[in-house]
């Protein structure tokens, strides 16, 4: 009987963990404001005055961030951002080390030429795994050329490490508010905040956003 008891404990823990990952978690704390969650991130996609804001904490090398980008992001933008119901912000959480920091810096350098989101998408389009060496200055230059950046300006920005601290500050902020994996999403409307963890299907986001939209 004891052997059976100890054997079932890991199974129960796994079930609980999976349930937590797949279930939105509400938080009505007054400690966080929309400004705090959005500041220091990407340019805002959509109407800045939309009722709902979606903030993704992500890593350009992260497998599940790539899956979200490939499988869910477009539908999310089409249904909610393009229709004015929500806006979207990306904040960096470079779990996979220096290469992830470098990729995030590159996106902000592209942003200096008003092409943050084009570069962001190009990074995920060329995703080649976690810590496999695909993020290099040479590959980042190639992506810059693909999206039509002035390469001299881009390289000057990169070599100056202009955005390194911004990226690291984003990760520190995420850690301070309980982000511990990627992708993680903070979805909020006013003071009502819900956290969604993982590369969830569109139905999970619909559940949260529709509730906020109808409240």
TrEMBL record:
It comes from the Archaea. InterPro entries: Thioredoxin-like_fold, Thioredoxin-like_sf, Thioredoxin_domain. SUPFAM superfamilies: Thioredoxin-like. The chain crosses the membrane at residues 5-22. Keywords: Disulfide bond, Membrane, Oxidoreductase, Redox-active center, Signal, Transmembrane, Transmembrane helix. GO terms for molecular function: oxidoreductase activity. The keyword Translocase does not apply. The keyword ATP-binding does not apply. Residues 23-214 form the Thioredoxin domain. Gene3D superfamilies: Glutaredoxin. Belongs to the thioredoxin family. DsbA subfamily. Belongs to the glutaredoxin family. This is DSBA oxidoreductase.
């Amino acid at each position: 009987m004891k052997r059976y008891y100890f054997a079932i404990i890991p199974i129960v823990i796994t079930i609980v963990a999976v349930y937590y990952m797949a279930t939105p978690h509400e938080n009505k704390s007054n400690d966080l404001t929309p400004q705090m969650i959005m500041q220091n991130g990407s340019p805002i996609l959509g109407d800045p005055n939309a009722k709902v804001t979606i903030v993704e904490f992500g890593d350009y090398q992260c497998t599940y961030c790539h899956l979200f980008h490939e499988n869910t992001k477009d539908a999310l933008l089409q249904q909610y951002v393009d229709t004015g119901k929500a806006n979207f912000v990306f904040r960096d959480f470079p779990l996979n080390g220096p290469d992830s920091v470098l990729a995030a810096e590159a996106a902000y350098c592209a942003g200096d030429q008003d092409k943050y989101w084009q570069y962001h998408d190009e990074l995920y389009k060329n995703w080649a795994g976690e810590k496999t060496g695909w993020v290099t200055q040479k590959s980042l230059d190639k992506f810059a050329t693909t999206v039509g950046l002035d390469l001299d300006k881009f390289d000057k920005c990169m070599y100056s490490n202009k955005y390194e601290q911004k990226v690291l500050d984003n990760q520190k902020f995420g850690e301070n508010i309980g982000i511990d994996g990627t992708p993680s999403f903070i979805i909020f409307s006013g003071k009502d905040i819900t956290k969604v963890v993982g590369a969830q299907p569109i139905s999970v986001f619909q559940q949260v956003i529709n509730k906020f939209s109808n409240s």
